[in-house]
Amino acid sequence: MAVTTLDQKTALVVIDLQKGIVAFPTAHPTSEVVRQASILADAFRSRGLPVVLVNVAGAPPGRTEHPPRVGAFPQGWADLVPELKQQPTDHTVTKRTAGAFVNTDLEAWLKGEGVTQVVIVGIATSMGVEATARHARDLGFNVTLAVDAMTDTNLDTHASSIAHVFPRLGETGTTRDILDLLAKRSA
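Request: output the structure for the sequence above.
Response:
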């Protein structure tokens, strides 16, 4: 389903656009993902809408068949990319799981701000973005996913999330679609 509307109080949630993650090889250039996310962040801020910047600084315990890509995180690994132009009004969340809601203050903060919808962007489509979108939907938020402002380390999993998972979790659209909806609200 294409994105049709944005609620009066919609927040942008940017997943893992941090120095260590954007350095991984990805299906689409991370520079373009960062550019689109930055455009959205600027647009949300200029309209007084919340921006949430999420980084990951660990992983949950337990065995998996695919061990984490890094052992100890190098200095600066979790630092958000400067292109996001982090502002004092942005809410920052550091997670240690795939999704941004588990063991963080994100749900309480969004609800405290009166947010009813989230637009989610970032890396990786099939992990951090998808896990956050699933949880947001389960918590009752309307979910929108800006598909040109995300990528994955694997093209197949990226495409599968966009084609098969996201339409069941919310609405999908491009950065331009979301900017157009924001512009209509301001008119």
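The beta strands are 10-15, 51-56, 91-95, 117-123, 142-151, 171-173.
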